[in-house]
Design brief:
CATH class of the largest domain: Alpha Beta
Structural class: alpha/beta
Protein name: Probable L-aspartate decarboxylase
Family: Belongs to the group II decarboxylase family. MfnA subfamily.
CATH superfamily of the largest domain: Type I PLP-dependent aspartate aminotransferase-like (Major domain)
Number of helices: 11
Largest sheet: 7 strands, mixed
Helix content: 25-40%
Shape: globular
Cofactor: pyridoxal 5'-phosphate
Bound molecules: pyridoxal-5'-phosphate
Strand content: 5-15%
GO molecular function: aspartate 1-decarboxylase activity; pyridoxal phosphate binding
InterPro entries: GrpII_AminoAcid_Decarb, MfnA, PyrdxlP-dep_de-COase, PyrdxlP-dep_Trfase, PyrdxlP-dep_Trfase_major, PyrdxlP-dep_Trfase_small
């Protein structure tokens, strides 16, 4: 049997995952055979999870966070919708209002939970259009979603305004900072629990947190948010479970705790500074070559690269992807260096 080898990160430019921090790798291996889904048996990893949630609270400016380490942003977003649905059971035809830049996990949430998803247009700079959101919200709305670091353009929605619209309608406000959450503390964007009465938030250690997969994060401002997800667990010593998964990997939990222990806040700040400078440089290089570039706000560059060049770069084994509108997307994750992008530009010059 042929022994397979995973890809290296050398040519991976469009992924939001990265090489985990060495401390995260060690912790993942050590806790591989633990199950935080059964916290009264696996007490050590349960304690690490509590630490991880506390640190995620610090990162998102929430003094007493209620949440857990999810399998990823998808589970966190599905659970945020589920909590809002469960807390507003009086709404008979519940709907969720989100900008069209929202991650496709909200489509899954709507499907699984049988709620209506109202996707509204974004403005010319790819942020939620407030008048469109206002027009879509009604008395059946349970949740208004803001994206803080959108998957395609790295844009941050006007979170305080979205929270106000949500609360005026008696609905909850959820911020999806799955990718942006470990970058935004070092910016002056208004996105976190401190900036607006946000009710719940997604922030993924397995993206910019440099933890191992699977490690997402879901936080609620109020205990009632998490409680709305709890079901009774008859055969376990712990009496209830709020997670969507049952048995889950202690590797993700332990690696998240270890990565944040190593990197929060100085390591993440250094990486934010490095990646931002790299994205600005790369955007300039593309502009000088005559490509249309979407100004990077967070370290993610989208550019108009013609299809034949894109295809030729894929053939040269660059792992790149396109936005829905066909733009090349380069995400400046920790493994993406100036050397990587210089050699990408040389290939681009050769194929265009
Ligand atoms: C990546 C991402 C998700 C999905 O997270 P997974 O960990 O892939 O499930 C959700 N929202 C945003 C904004 C993302 O960038």
């Amino acid at each position: 049997m042929q022994r397979s080898v995973p890809q290296t990160f050398d040519r991976v430019l469009s992924s939001m995952c990265t090489e985990p921090h060495p401390a995260a790798r060690r912790a993942a291996e050590r806790y591989l055979a633990t199950n935080p889904g059964d916290p009264s048996t696996y007490t050590e990893v349960a304690a690490l999870e509590a630490d991880a949630v506390d640190t995620l609270g610090e990162i998102t400016s929430l003094a007493e966070p209620h949440g857990y380490v999810t399998s990823g942003g998808t589970e966190a977003n599905v659970q945020a919708v589920r909590a809002a649905r469960n807390r507003l059971r009086d709404r008979t035809n519940p709907n969720v209002v989100a900008p069209e830049s929202a991650h496709f996990s909200f489509n899954k949430a709507a499907d699984v939970l049988d709620v209506e998803l109202r996707l509204v247009p974004t403005d010319e700079d790819h942020r939620a259009d407030l008048s469109a959101v206002r027009a879509a919200v009604d008395e059946e709305t349970i949740l208004v979603v803001g994206v803080a670091g959108s998957t395609e353009f790295g844009r941050v929605d006007p979170v305080p305004e979205l929270a106000a619209i949500a609360h005026d309608a008696g609905a909850f406000c959820h911020v999806d900072a799955a990718w942006g959450g470990f970058l935004l503390p070092f910016t002056d964007h208004a996105w976190s629990f401190a900036h607006a009465p946000v009710d719940s938030l997604t922030v993924d250690p397995h993206k910019c947190g440099q933890a191992c997969i699977p490690a997402g994060g879901l936080l609620f401002r109020e205990r009632a948010g998490l409680d709305a997800l709890a079901v009774e667990t008859p055969y376990l010593e712990s009496t209830s479970q709020a997670t969507l998964t049952g048995t889950r990997s202690g590797a993700g939990v332990a690696s998240a705790a270890a990565a944040m222990d190593e990197l929060w806040p100085d390591g993440y700040r250094r990486e934010y500074d490095r990646a931002s400078a790299l994205a600005d440089w790369f955007a300039d290089e593309l502009r000088e070559r005559g490509f249309g570039v979407v100004d990077p706000e967070l370290p993610l560059v989208a550019a108009e690269v013609p299809e034949p060049a894109f295809d030729a770069l894929r053939e040269r084994e660059w792992r790149i992807s396109r936005t829905a509108s066909g733009l090349l997307r380069v995400v400046c994750m920790p493994h993406v260096t100036r050397g990587t992008l210089s050699s990408f530009l040389s290939d681009l010059d050769a194929v265009r």
